[in-house]
Amino acid sequence: MPFMGLNDLMTEIKQDQTCFLGDEAIENKVLNQVLLLVEDKISEVKNQAVKCLGQLIKIIRQPQMETVVDRLIDFSGGQDEELRDISGLALKTITAELPPDGKVAATACAKLTPKLLGQIQNPKTPPEALVETLSILSILISRFPALLSGAVLDPPPLVVLAPLLSHARPVVRKRAIITLSQYIPISPAELFHELLRTNVFPFLDELANIEKQRTTVQLVAAVARHSPLQIAPVLSQIVPGVLKAVQKDDDELREGSLQALEAILLRCPTETTPYLDAIVQTGSQFIKFDPNYAGNDDDEEMADDDDDDDDEELDDEYSDDEDTSYKIRRSATKLLSAIIGTRPELLTPIYKSVSPVLISRFGDRESTVRLEVWATYAALLNQTAVYGLPQGKDDLRKRKRDTETTDVAESPYTLLQSQVPALSKALLNQLKSAKTPPATLQAGFSLLHALLTVLPGSLSTQVPLIFSTSKTILSLSPTTTTSTLHLTCLSFLALFFSTHPPPIFAGPLPSLTPVLLKSLKERHPRITSESFRVFSALLNALKPVKGADWVDAVYEQAVSKLSNHDTDAEVRECAEDCVANLWIGATDVVRTKGGKEWESICRPTGKTDGAVKVVTKVAKEVSVGDIWVNGVVEWLLNLLKKAGRQGKPEIFLALDVSLNSYTSGIPPALAPALIAQVKSYISINDVALLSQSLSLLAVLLKLTPRTTFPEVEKHLLADIYEISHSPLLSPAALESLLSFYAALVQADNQISTHIVPNLVISIEKSAKVNASPANVARCIAQVVKSQPNVAAGVIAEYSKNIKKTSKATAPRVVLSLLIVGELGRFIDMSTQKDIFTNTIDHFGSEKEEVRVAAAFAAGNIAIGNLQQFLPAIVRLAESDPKKRLLSLHALKEVVTHCSQGQLEGVAEMLWVPLFKNSETSEETTRNVAAACLGKLATTHPSRYLPQLHARLREPNAATRATVVSAIRYTFADNSQSYDELLAPLLVDFLSLMLDEDLTVRRLALSSLNSAARTKPHLIREHLTSLLPSLYKETIVNPELIRTVQMGPWMHKVDDGLDTRKTAYETMYTLLDTCLTKLDLHEFLSRVIPGLSDDSDEIKVISHMLLFRLAQVAPAAVSQRLDEATPQLEKTMKGANVTKDTVKQDLERAAELQRSALRAVVALSKIGLGVSSRFDSFVDDVKKNPTWGPEFRELLAAH
Question: Of 9, 237, 543, 917, which is most buried by a Cβ count within 10 Å?
């Protein structure tokens, strides 16, 4: 009866928390009754009462909460063991269930913590109660560090907890160590130093008591994990003692010392740098520590087959329950793993000293150690994939040059190559035995997979052993416990076949294909899918495949799966892809099968995405025949009729490929049918599909103009005219539109005379906001380029609108200028000089859009005849201040659209005037000049780069700004022809990051960002000198913050915000292109402050940085979660709603929360278990009704 009553009460509270609130006397009565039931004799009732208290604590009044806490503490300190245990559980439940926000948590912390500390001080408290009390204190500090740091606790936690380090019971000491380390960050520094003086330094002495030393190294490890900032300054007094302690002949002390070194290494990376060599040596020494086994460690991997079998028998016979040396070897392995995970700059020395030691321990007799060693080597391979392999084309070329010389520079890549024979043999010797457990086999094949990912084609010498081991695994039917092993093995084989040359495995392949074919028939869908992937890899590697018996069997299995409507979606997709590879790799065999597979692939219903990709793939590679193409096109047209957008881009691509694969020409009836389907996509509503539709029409017009043109003219052309002047056209869609007009004019010679006036009429009828004259001008230019005989008429028609005597409206003048400009780019107008003169006259127009169009036209007309027109623009830029900016825009058109050869001829004419105009303080003018100078510098770098370099120290800040902007524009050219000239000057250019002028500094940062994106090979070696300047700009400068009055409000303006934002953007770019040259610990030290920046934009960039770091540097970023968590928590709380809060504020806060959530999801995948505060934060996010579902959705997506 009490149980049911408690259950009903708990259910009511969960449904409606207000149901308990009302008459205080009744509340007290119910609460006292629940507390009485905690003492009930029936265990189920007690446990239910504890759960009920967990719900009640969230809603009861403060005096009632104090009553609950007092009673439970009394119970937990009593002599009744059962009551003590249940009350301890109740206190744990209460502290874990307290809501993170609100007054309840603050009151609970203020009330509970002193009482718990008092209970610890009570000498009568039994050890079991001490352990529970310490656990509750840990929960409190993990969940509410901010509340406890602000509380005044007397006596302080460190004073209360320190004596427990000498407690007689080891379990109490261990629990006290954890709790003590968690309270150090909120304790006064003098108390921590007192703790070090009395409980750490004395017991690191060589002569200290062994038991005390064990406790001390455990304490050091815990403090390093929970309070790294506090212990870091004194590590020079601690690490030497720990390194000596590890050499003592005591297994527990050794294990604790190795764990302490691992924690210090992870949490205090900068301070441990001086001890790295000693730590590596210690790890390498104790990974081999096995005093009870007389094996030759160094040659273990070289043992032959018979020796391995003997070892297995010895392993079976050998058993010593007292042997704990494996714990030392495991801790040493984890220590080496920590070095590998956090010190990418040491990859080369790690491959020299640590890798051979790890390989020698691949055969450790203890399975847990063996798996840890393999996992550590996998971590080394992952680090090599991120940091040790070439990053760009320049590195690849350099490596190629290196390999052609006799003295190849040692790198992680080359060192790994040299160690692969020993590595693969040692590993495969551990996998070949029939007695090897599935977990070991799976770990082994995962490691082999990681090796091939980093070093493709590196297992050529181990084919027999790989095939025999794989055959043994795949011969057995998969079970619940071994299905994952089968998947791992198959995934490895697919990678093996795709990365090794066929002659290596073609000989022994017949021994493996039977078990692979058997896997195709397995009922487990993932195994079947992976088996199809293996055969796809095999077909790609061996193509063309001839005379292989397995091809027919694979084909039959694929058809069988595809024809069965109950086939799993993933299996179907893999079978479809395998059919495509059969057609491409074994064409002669499949061609004789009658094509029955296509009936199942090209089905009218169900998911067809994979099938469309298969058809596209086959049509690109193989000539199947026009009958097949007809069937495919008909099927694709039916798919186009379906509602919704999903899969449509792929269908258009498939249609494009299919049309081009006809061998006897396109059937006459196809064009009308296809145009009827495409018509609905000739709309601006979906620009991507519009682009593909126009490209498809262009293909049709080229392949079958006679049947296509009339249909297009009749049904589509009017709509396309409307689209042509839309400002919503993307660059890709505009290119497709131009291709369409080119094909249309080629299809009918007469149409061009109609297109041009119709385009103009269409734009003039449209509303101004929906019109883009620039797009129309480009379309007309394309028509003229494709049909040059209409050029004279078009020029005459539209040049009259720009004459002084013209009565044309401003929009007509703008359009005419743009048309003349587009045509002037490829038509010499020197015979009609009045056109250029009239264009220049419009520089004085009252309407800005006319002036801008005139500048565009003047620049492009000049391109048609540089000698004739360019000097006039230059003179105008030099002599007329009012028209200077427009003249510069015209020159920018010249510089942007001229060919390299043309520019080289006029560069000298432009260089000096452009520099003169850079000396103005007007930023717009300066930016245009800089863009031109940057482009010109690439035409003759040996002449112009030194001239830019010479102006770096100009006293005029505007000139310096122009110089650094011009350099930024040189990076837009991906050519490496002038890299050797730029390289020695680059650091000087980028040194302007230290300039006294804020604008110059921002532009220099922007230049570094551009260099990092397009020419990272030029800056990587200089980052050590450049990064301090970059990091300095991420710091908020109070001197740049000013207060301005806006109406009745005072508003703060940060003039350094743009520069700071540019700095963070540059950091993000460097993370992608120069990762190997970054000190990640220093890098993170600038990312974390960005999380609390006043600018939402910088917060978002910082979230993106954390997201990326979680992928490329999980070990390093996971150790900084304690620092990142408070700011992420603050962001996830959202905006503080006040009477002045508007809807936009809430939307902005929600977007910022989503940005933070993405980072939290990424961090949760690598950081759970490292930071208790972060773990609690993640739990709170998961429970949040708003963000919990989105968190789970993001987690599933990544």
Answer: 917
Tell me the two tokens of residue 255.
Answer: 């294990």
* Residue 988 CB coordination number (10 Å): 12
The pTM of the full predicted model, rounded to 2 decimals, is 0.84
Q: Which of 6-15, 351-360, 904-913 has the lowest mean pLDDT?
A: 6-15
Please report, in angstroms and rounded to a whole number, the separation of the first and last CA atoms in the chain.
48
Give the C-alpha separation, 218 to 253, whole Å: 9
408 SS3 class: coil
C-alpha count within 13 angstroms, C-beta hemisphere, residue 101:
8
Q: Rounded to an integer, what is the distance from CA 641 to the centroid of its chain?
A: 37
Residue bearing tokens 């719900």: 55
User: Which residues, at least 6 apart from 518, have a Cβ–Cβ distance to it below 8 Å?
Assistant: 474, 475
> Which residue intervals of 865-922 are DSSP H helices?
866-879, 884-897, 900-918
User: What does the pLDDT read at residue 458?
Assistant: 92
Counts of helices then strands in the chain (DSSP H, E) = 66, 2
The three-state secondary structure class of 1093 is coil
Rounded Cα distance between 300 and 454, Å, is 25
Burial class (CB in 10 A: 0-12, 13-18, 19+), 466: buried
**Confidence band, pLDDT 50/70/90 cuts, at residue 635:** very high
Tokens 């006029």 found at: 906
Mean pLDDT of the chain: 87
Contact predicate 1002/1058, CB 8 Å: yes
d(CA 1074, CA 1067): 10
Q: What is the 3-state secondary structure (H, E, C) of 961-987?
A: HHHHHHHHHHCCCCCCCCHHHHHHHHH
Query: What one-character-per-residue DSSP string does 264-278 give?
Result: HHHH-HHHHGGGHHH
* Alpha carbon distance 107, 551 (integer Å): 74
CA 674 from chain center: how many Å?
41
Q: Are 877 and 844 in contact (CB under 8 A)?
A: no
Integer Cα distance of 1140 and 301 in angstroms: 72
* Cα 462-451-422 angle, rounded to 5 deg: 50
- Cα–Cα distances in Å, from 605 out to 214, 565, 617, 639, 777? 69, 11, 21, 9, 45
Range among 152-161, 170-179, 386-395, 1127-1136 rated most confident:
170-179
Residue 1098 contacts residue 249 (beta carbons within 8 Å): no
In tens, the pLDDT along 829-852 reads: 988 889 999 999 999 999 999 999
DSSP strand pairing (1041-1046 vs 1049-1054): antiparallel
Alpha-carbon distance of 551 to 564, in angstroms, equals 20
- Measured CA to CA, the distance from residue 717 to residue 739 in angstroms comes to 14
Q: What is the DSSP secondary-structure string of 68-82?
A: HHHHHHHHHTSS-HH
What residues are paired with 1052 via a beta bridge?
1043
Q: Which two tokens stand for residue 1155?
A: 């940005």
Cβ pair 387, 412 in contact under 8 A:
yes
- The strand pairing partners of 1045, in sequence order, are 1050
Do 354 and 336 touch, CB atoms closer than 8 A? yes
* Distant-in-sequence, close-in-space partners of 43: CB < 8 Å, separation ≥ 6: none
Nearest Cα residue to 1061 out of 1008, 1104, 1098: 1098
Task: Return the pLDDT at 55.
Answer: 74
Residue 97 in this model has a pLDDT that exceeds 80:
no
Check if the beta carbon of residue 637 is closer than 8 Å to that of residue 677: yes
Are 487 and 527 contacting, i.e. CB atoms less than 8 angstroms apart? yes
How far apart CA 884 and CA 336 sit, in angstroms, is 65
Q: Which amino acid is at 1152?
A: L
Q: What share of the chain is helix, strand, coil (3-state, %, to 5)?
A: 75, 0, 20
For residue range 559-616, what is the model confidence (pLDDT) as tens digits?
A: 999 998 888 999 999 999 999 999 999 998 898 888 888 988 888 877 888 899 999 9
